[in-house]
Write a structure and sequence with these properties.
The strands form three sheets. This protein has an eight-stranded parallel barrel with strand order 7-8-9-10-11-12-13-14, surrounded by seven helices. Strands 2-3-1-4 form a four-stranded antiparallel β-sheet. It has eleven helices and 14 strands. It starts with a strand and ends with a helix. The chain is globular and about 65 Å long. 37% of the residues lie in helices and 18% in strands. Strand 8, helix 4 and strand 9 form a beta-alpha-beta unit. The chain has 342 residues and is α/β, with parallel strands linked by helices. Helix 3 packs parallel to helix 4 and helix 6 packs across helix 7. Bound molecules: phosphoenolpyruvate and manganese (II) ion.
Length: 342
């Protein structure tokens, strides 16, 4: 059920609708938009009778939802969501750049990457303290000590911190030190983790699972939102296919598909999407050209010495060059989208 309020509906009229939903034993999610507020209803097993809401003051319409997702849907919020991440935003007219090393390895490595990322004009810095590695014998990350270095980076450079949590304890730690909780591809369907992230008040960067369909990806976002956290950013990071010339097959067609169905922003990760240094910049350009709201890029001051994902890391100079190229493409993409809309 989706309840669309009239454009002039008052706070108390919205409250009255939420209280009615509550009294029925369901949960109401009010999402204010540019012109009107819409309220999504979750927690109902069967369909809800629109008659409960139709005649309440301020209600324009009560609509039954037939899709499996409710809160991510454009029916709830027709315009795009602009997600606040620390002092920056993702999903607005600016291209969001998130860059940094795969893993935090030392204070020196982190600060050297952060200096270049800050110089490039990026607002967001990445770096993993908890690393999901295929082998239990591979470097697992610096843990909380790494998060403390990230917090120092934020203080020194004003960069907003995006970092992965693999479990509930990790979410608590990222909430304390970071600005955005990354949920990695391998955890995209860790439903208890998604629910836990949904109870926090930090934005969540949700990466697409290695074999997730569009529906599965969107329903994972829906899990987070159903708990009351509406600040979700999606990320395409490549999927498993038979192709073996790249680490993953980056599926850029999901960007317009996501924009068609949901108000949530989507960014592209050409680092994990390709796994090869020489492919990162071309696929970053392509991601921006298909309308991604941002990019997440792995950079390392010395890729050859990286403890994790060195083959796909850009040098700091390569990253600065990438930024120049994608900014130009972003301007052209925005101009042509505006011209088409006008
Ligand atoms: C990462 O961002 O370093 C990472 C582990 O990503 P993914 O979950 O997409 O593999
Ligand atoms: Mn990585």
């Amino acid at each position: 059920m989706l309840i669309v309020m009239k454009s002039g509906a008052t706070e108390s009229e919205i409250e009255k609708v939420l209280a009615t939903i509550d009294a029925l034993g369901f949960r109401g999610h009010a999402l204010p938009g540019e012109n009107r507020t819409a309220i999504g209803v979750t927690g109902n097993k069967g369909s809800v009778d629109p008659a409960h809401f139709e005649n309440l003051p301020g209600v324009a319409n009560a609509i039954r939802v037939t899709q499996p997702y409710k809160l991510i849907s454009k029916d709830l919020r027709p315009e795009k969501s602009v997600i606040k991440v620390g002092t920056g935003t993702i999903g607005g007219s600016e291209l969001a750049m998130i860059a940094g090393p795969c893993a935090i390895e030392s204070r020196e490595q982190l600060f050297s990457a952060a200096e270049a990322v800050a110089k490039s004009g990026a607002k967001f810095f990445r770096g993993g303290a908890y690393k999901p590695r295929t082998s239990p014998y591979a470097f697992q990350g610096m843990g909380e000590d790494g998060l403390k270095f990230l917090a120092e980076v934020r203080d020194q450079y004003g960069l907003n911190i995006v970092t992965e949590a693999m479990d509930e304890r990790g979410i608590d730690a990222v909430e304390k030190y970071g600005d955005c909780i990354q949920i990695g591809a391998r955890n995209m369907q860790n439903f208890s983790l998604l629910k836990y992230a949904g109870k926090t008040r930090k934005p969540v960067l949700l990466k697409r699972g290695l074999s997730a369909t569009l529906d599965e990806f969107l329903l994972a976002a829906e899990y987070i939102m159903a708990e009351g956290n509406y600040d979700v950013i999606l990320c395409e990071r490549g999927i498993r296919t038979f192709a073996n010339h790249a680490r993953n097959t980056i599926d850029l067609s999901i960007v317009p598909a996501v924009h068609r169905l949901t108000h949530l922003p989507i960014i592209v990760d050409p680092s994990h999407g390709t796994g090869h240094n020489y492919m990162v910049t071309p696929l970053a350009r392509a991601g921006v050209a298909v309308g991604a709201d941002g990019l997440i890029i792995e950079v390392h001051p010395k890729p050859e010495e990286a403890l994790c994902d060195g083959a796909q890391a850009l040098t700091l100079d390569q990253y600065l060059e990438l930024v120049k190229q994608v900014q130009r493409i972003h301007e052209v993409t925005n101009e042509s989208a505006l011209a088409l809309a006008g």
